[in-house]
Amino acid sequence: MAAAGASLTIAAMNTSTTTSTSSALPRIAVLATGGTIAGAAPDATNTSGYQAGVVGVGQLLAAVPSLATVANVQAEQVASVDSKDMALALWTKLAQRVDELLASSGIDGVVITHGTDTLEETAYLLHLTVKSDKPVVVTAAMRPSSALSADGPLNLLNAVTVAGSAHAKGQGVLVAFNNRIHSARDVVKTSTYAVDAFHSPEIGALGWVQDGRVEFQRAVVRPHTTATPFAIASTGAQWPVVEVVTSYAGASRIAVDALVAAGVKGIVVAGTGNGSIHATVQTALAEAAAKGVAIVRSSRVGSGHVMRNGAASDDTLGFVTAGALNPYKARVLLMLALAAGHATPVALQQVFDTY
Ligand code: SIN
Prior knowledge:
There is one protein chain. By secondary structure, this protein is α/β, with parallel strands linked by helices. The chain contains eleven helices and 15 strands. A nine-stranded mixed β-sheet has the order 1-3-2-4-5-6-7-10-11. The two termini are about 35 Å apart. Bound molecules: succinic acid. Succinic acid binds near residues 35, 83, 84, 117 and 140.
């Protein structure tokens, strides 16, 4: 657990080339944003009471001398945050910097170091918005850099290795974690403490990376990156307000009514089972939909998908279903879709069925 009150300081971008240059190696930019991978604890056996995002990117790279054998690495400290505090402004800044770097002929791929807590949201955002087919690989760690058997150094080496692989080109944004390579669309954090904390439920990983070898066993099917209409440059700072509510035994309509009164543009509901919703909450959401608030039905279960007109009559209620996206990824897509001008349930459902 990170120390309370971790600040949202966005550090100035420090560029430092940390490996000797070899023209045969891929040129990879590492963008550091903080997280446990950059965390430090008072002693090596402490893996829960540390402060995230306090170790600079130069130190992270210095801990992995083998990086020089797989890539020419340049590094930037984009932010130093505990990813629970990820902010929309930082998403904008990060996405724009990734696009800038990938537009350069001097960069072959980008690696982002991130906290694990919201990694799947940032990775999916970039998967939908980056405008390049060059590899973008997000990685992280479950143990702080100070820990015995810290997992960050190998995850970083593997992420840079994947970003430098020709096989990673055109696969959208990837997550390299614990030797596996996942699609940003599918991957979710599944453990609060275990080193093997990321999985792609139902679908499985795309492939693996080990000892410098990168192998993909399947490809990404849904459109991403250059094949989407979503771009952070056009979204800018105007992120539509979309919030998540949950359905559970004894739920009330207080949260939905408060959100509608606050003027939200969209609500994602983390329903039970196949996205089913407590009748009280569902009535409130139907009233919100009738007022023009976009309502997306997803599931709190953690795997599977939500079937349209299954556990609720979406056609009648004016709801949209999230398919296999969890509530937090559904929120990312809904924000982008609303920002791109998709307003009706029919148009939004088409977006969810496509991306
Ligand atoms: C964070 O998400 O920044 C802290 C937790 C972690 O990286 O594992």
